[in-house]
What we know:
- The complex is a heterodimer of chains A (301) and B (139).
- With 301 residues, chain A is an alpha/beta fold.
- Chain A has helices at residues 2-14, 18-24, 29-36, 39-58, 61-64, 70-89, 94-110, 114-135, 140-181, 205-222, 239-254, 266-275, 288-300; strands at residues 188-191, 194-201, 226-234, 258-262.
- In chain A, strand 3, helix 11 (239-254) and strand 4 form a beta-alpha-beta unit.
- In chain A, helix 7 (94-110) crosses helix 9 (140-181) and helix 10 (205-222) runs parallel beside helix 11 (239-254).
- The longest helix of chain A is centred in the middle third of the chain and has 42 residues, at 140-181.
- By secondary structure, chain B is of the alpha+beta class.
- Chain B has one domain (6-136): Histidine kinase-like ATPase, C-terminal domain (Heat Shock Protein 90, 2-Layer Sandwich).
- Chain B contains four helices and six strands, in the order ββααββααββ.
- Chain B has helices at residues 17-34, 38-59, 91-94, 108-115, and strands spanning 2-3, 10-14, 62-71, 74-83, 118-124, 128-136.
- In chain B, strands 1, 2, 3, 4, 5 and 6 form a six-stranded antiparallel β-sheet that branches.
- In chain B, helix 1 (17-34) runs antiparallel to helix 2 (38-59) and helix 2 packs antiparallel against helix 4 (108-115).
- Chains A and B meet through helix 1, helix 9, helix 11 and helix 12 of A and helix 1, helix 2 and helix 4 of B.
- The complex binds adenosine-5'-diphosphate and magnesium ion (MG).
- Adenosine-5'-diphosphate binds next to helix 2 and helix 4 of chain B.
Amino acid sequence: MLEIIASSAEDARDGYDLQKAMKWFDLSPEDRDRTMQLGEISESVAEAIIEAFYEHLLSDPVAAQHFHGPDHVEKVKAGQLRYFRELISAELDDDYIADRRRIGGIHERTGVTPTLYIGAYAFYLNRLATIVLDRMKEEPDSAFPLLLSLFKFAHFDMALALETYVDTREETIRDRERELSELPTPVLQLRPGLLLIPVVGTLDSFRARALTVQLLEGIRAHRARAVVLDITGVAAVDSAVANHLIQTMSAARLMGVRSVLTGLSAEVAQSLVKVGVTAEKLQTAGDLESGIELADRLMAG
Amino acid sequence: MQVEGALGGDIQAIRRDADVISARQSGRQIAERMGYSRPDQALIATAISELARNIVNYAGKGEIEITPVRRRGRMGLRIIARDHGPGIEDLERAMADGFSTGNSFGLGLPGAKRIMDDFDVVTAVGEGVVVTAIKWMGR
Ligand SMILES: Nc1ncnc2c1ncn2[C@@H]1O[C@H](COP(=O)(O)OP(=O)(O)O)[C@@H](O)[C@H]1O
Ligand SMILES: [Mg+2]
């Protein structure tokens, strides 16, 4: 199972392997031949099914909120008609995949949940299957394989849309994280020669480099002689973060500026000690106030 | 040793900084849910951070699995850090304080070992690294 999880995650990121996916869903050209045989029936009832579905959907006030008026409903219905037509007869190629993925992405952004999407799909498949079985009731043995092939395509489709849904969601989260991590760090002048830099959020390589640059620029701009680096807002510190902080502080030292680190919580301090980052490595003061005092003394001496 | 599924667990793909952050956040959450003290939560988060960062820095990609476990009635949190990167050539040196091929502190592995109660590394050059570490409750 682990292997499968790992490889599907791989596909999502590094491009989609159509052959592999078809094999996994046991899809073959014969399946397409079979669903095409449903083309005529499906074509004759698709619109009615979609109408019925929207009646069902719009009776739910929460779901109805997704639509901004009758024109929008008509547009979505038309899209759905095309979607189901392609499910029956479209060629399974890269364009198809791209289109299904695009739709998954739209769903994520517009708040169409997996429940809504799969529910709509189930509604359509149930209605269509019922009609097919009814119209072909003289020959049920030929109706079944046609429907089974249709179900394979439907599952393939849903998987594609959901993979994209998840990818889009992850990307949104990553973008948000990146935005957060790119928040500029403010450099505050406490009094002539003394700077305070409150660091918030996470401090990882990218952000730490930015911090060093900002600190050095702040020192130059304000002709600072001492800096207090307050990390009260930093949630976790491991040896790499400690390393970044120390490098930042020794860069300042090279410019003739003394710096003091404040705001280490008891938990963070204890973790650092356990890991082995010692107090000599970090010039620390307990709270902000004593940090400023210490910085003052360092400036004076 | 039993896996305690009901308390939740997590497998997370590790490829970049952001994954290191979310792995340690999820470790902290699981530890909190299990009832670890706040200092212990911070220790566990730090150990996860060290192991995940090594994956990003030295193997490029891998995964972190976080699972509540139970042995002889005692609860623990197990962290498995797994990658298929280059592996560690000299494990004994890598486990010593201050050894680093990455020009950093060389405290990640020995530090994580100090934090956790059980700590086991399996590695082969060219095949990757699997670190299995457990922190037992109430020690
Ligand atoms: N997952 C890994 N794959 C390959 N080498 C590793 C891995 N983890 C650690 N190492 C090696 O072990 C050394 C020590 O690791 P660590 O104690 O975390 O210190 P640091 O990361 O500061 O170098 C690293 O410099 C690296 O050579
Ligand atoms: Mg390390």
